[in-house]
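All the exercises in this workshop are built on plain-text protein records. The record below serves as our worked example for the rest of this section.
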Amino acid sequence: MFEFKLDEHEVSNVHFIGIGGISMSGIAALLLNKGYNVSGSDRSMSDIVKNLENHGAKIYIGQSKNNINNPDLVIYTDAILDDNEELIAARNLDVPVISRGVFLGALMRNYENSIAISGSHGKSTTTSMISKILLNSKENPTVLLGGELEDLEGNVHVGDEKFLVTEACEYKGNIRYYFPQTLIVLNIDQDHLDYYKNLDHIVDTFKEYLRNQDENSITISNLNEANNRLIFDSVQGRLITYAQENDEADYVAKNIKFDEIGRPNFDLKMKDGSIEHFELGVIGRHNINNAMASIIATYENGIDIETIRKNIKAYKGLNRRMQILGHVNDATIMTDYGHHPSEIDVTLKALREHTDGKLVCIWQPHTYSRTKTLFNDFLKCFDGADEVVVTDIYAAREKFDPTIHSKDVVDALVKKGINAKYLGTFEEARDYVYQIAEPSDLIITTGCGNPDVLAKMIVNDYKKNNK
């Protein structure tokens, strides 16, 4: 097992292959703050990479064997393939070369209480909710986020070594390497099927994750998620459950109501039977689940209920999570990170309930493998929209696959009776929005590639042309 003592500096020079990713950059920033010499490569310059460079990291643009200059430790992102020449050069050295997941697991062991949030949907929101509460308590947590939180002015905060708050993504089975004291399993769904064989493979991986923990750990999980129940027999420490309107759970949300724009408020029956009332600053029924997990995780770790209540209401969301970017013709332009059918479905249903005009969803499919394996599920998740626009697939880490195309999804949606059209480029989608946008409409771009770029383009170009 790989071990890393954060404060002992047994290594000095740490090199990151793929340093610009949201998680990799957070770890790099943490090590910079702790006095390590950090270098790293990425395929292009970005604001995140530039910020690391400004704080002392040595940055290389493009992956090359020449980027490897006597590191003591090399950390690579899962997006890097085995035939990458920089990774091959690193492995030819007599130094540890480990994945981001393995390093994050070792990092967790440096903290008195690491809180790791896993699940197919809601990880970033729940992680940032917990971070919001802890950052505004008497504690000084270390935070590694998968998105940008306004309180942090970014995605990382280096605090003391009592609390570490981090996402625990199951991609490539990385959760098998994690050792938190507080585990949150939000939900288990079919995703990352370019790695996992099927749902059983995903469930087995979560079971292995839970079996790795010790008897002092706490596992917090949603009882209303059927797949979560499949892993409860693998919990090693305490199991704490929560649910909406289900008295079997330890914590239960009841008397759920919504304000005029869809922000929930609810009574939470606590484990001891007492009732606490909470109001959320974000919209959607699904965020009640994220809030409950956040409330329980912080309350069970000693944070007082008033601090929790105040900050769960003050939480306004992460960048790219139902984020309003501006207006065009008095229509609201929003962007979201949802890329799995379940995420898109709950987002559109939440927005539909409080949208007076048309609800238009512009979807950028993410990876050929996800579009292909979840094809039929994608046909069911757009019912909440009045119109769906599909752009070209964002390939990410994958090579071109000629057997799947965005047009295939559009054809199937149209056949099903959904108003859908294919507009491959962002420029085409932008110009179409200008044609159809009317007052009271809500137009949302969604996906985990770069659909936020499209939303910003729609708003900014409109401003330029209408000065």
